[in-house]
Amino acid sequence: MSQRLRRRLKSFNSSDPTQSRLSIQAMGEPAKPNVQAWEGWPARQTNLIFGGMALGEKSYLDLWQKLEADPTDPEAQRNIGITRPLLWIK
What we know:
49% of the residues lie in helices and 0% in strands. The protein has 90 residues and is an all-alpha fold. The N and C termini lie close together (5 Å).
């Protein structure tokens, strides 16, 4: 990841530096099924790879690699905005 992108990602942190980390961490934790397209999750979400790189969290990167790369569920596909995040990384 470029230094410029790393700085920009870190600049989005709130005044409490743990908030970004907690938000990303919550994406990897199991939850109760309360959404319409539960069967399509978990899938790779870009916040895990970008956040893992920006925050230096190998566990987020490891989780991103383990998750389904190309979900077949249309609702899961719709909710993943960037489907090829590696193209954004220098």
